[in-house]
Write a structure and sequence with these properties.
Blueprint: H1 2-17, E1 23-32, H2 42-49, H3 51-66, H4 68-82, H5 87-122, E2 129-142, H6 146-213, H7 218-252, H8 282-288, H9 290-311, E3 316-327, E4 339-349, H10 357-423, H11 429-463
Antiparallel strand pairs: 1-2, 2-3, 3-4
Helix pairs in contact: 1-6, 2-5, 3-5, 4-5, 6-7, 6-9, 6-11, 8-10, 9-10, 10-11
Length: about 475
Amino acid sequence: MANLRSEKAGYQHKAALSNYLPKIDFIGTYQRTSKSISLLSDEQKANLSGLGTNMASSLQQGIAESGAAQTMQQLAGQIIAANPDLAPLVQQGSQAASQYVGQFTQQAAQSLNATGQSIVDALDTESRNMGVMSVMFTQPLYMGGKIRAYDKITHYAEQLSGEKLRLEEQELILDVDKAYWQVVSLTNKRNLAQSYRDMLQHLDEDVNKMIQEGVATKANELTVSVKLNEAEMTLMRIDDGLVLSRMLLAQLCGMELDETPVLADEKLDGIATKIADVESDASVAESNRPELQQLEIAKDIYKEKINIERSAFLPNLALTGGYMSTYPALTNGFETRFRGMWNVGVSLKVPIWAWGEGINKVKAAKTDAALAALQYEEAREKINLQVKQTAFAVNEANRKLQYADRNLEKAEENLRVAKIGFAEGMIPTSDLLAAQTAWVSAQSDKIDSQIDIMLTRAAYTKALGF
């Protein structure tokens, strides 16, 4: 899981790097409306469609109002009165002129009506079906430092995930060490419990022989039997604990729970330990501990977050361009087809006033950065304390093992004397059982001391950041 988180951080850093490059997008929309957009009103459409008719009516009305027709009739009458012979010719000419004017007016009206209707048709948008297609690119030129800040933050986040991975590894190693030495401890204690049980079984046989010889009582035999039963129960509990401890170790190592790996140290007759005191070196821990490295990186991240908050209230400049096509087309009147055009431009956004929002956000980010610095100092102090404590624990475990060795030597000598005294009939069964119990306790203390050295050294190693 830690590896996957580290891999994810790497992808996020690559994504942040892409913000330096231009983005290319395609946008397409379609819309169906119940009505078209009209550039003319219904009254304007009617006037344009009847343009010729309206003009002819206006012309006839103007001629009638001006009296031109009456004047022509009077002039024709004067000509006929002066020249009666010309009357048929004048009448024919007058009728022909009136007919010609009427035909000309009618043709002109029809032509103008057609022209007006063509204008109405040309201005019909037919925009019930509308569509836009656009391919645009945007190249950031200056974003107030936001892109660079994101680049640094994701780079720091990638480093942070690496430190988290290292911490997970160290914690896993420590858990495996604990489970490993728990199995070794239980294996040695099982051998000890088995030896103690075998010792009690031998003593029980001796007491039964002594009862037959009349030198021991039934009470002695019952005392030994009780101790033997206790030893059997102790051995059974150790066996159960050993099974569970092996399961835990197998789980930590990624093995099947029913697998029973044989450990190298459990094959040995004893636990190989070296008694050597250690010195607490806080400087090593400060340079190696992944927790401190994470907090150090967190401080850098919070510093960059200040730049991000500040960038939101700085000018943003970008170069834009692309190709846009619309339906209906607008570049050559209204056409029911797709037509487009290239475009290029510059986009500038300059925040002017936000009632102190930017200042307060920057101050909040600076507060987070200050908190991160304090957390780093607090963690550094605690880690220094932890190094001193684990070093003290190692040295204390060394001293405990020395005491355990001396106690075991005394317990072994006490048991040897007790066995000789019991064989000679000089001491009772209870004293021999007490000597055996003391020997078992001393052996158990030595095993615990040896395991304690291993565990404290593992904790000290982790405290140093290894």
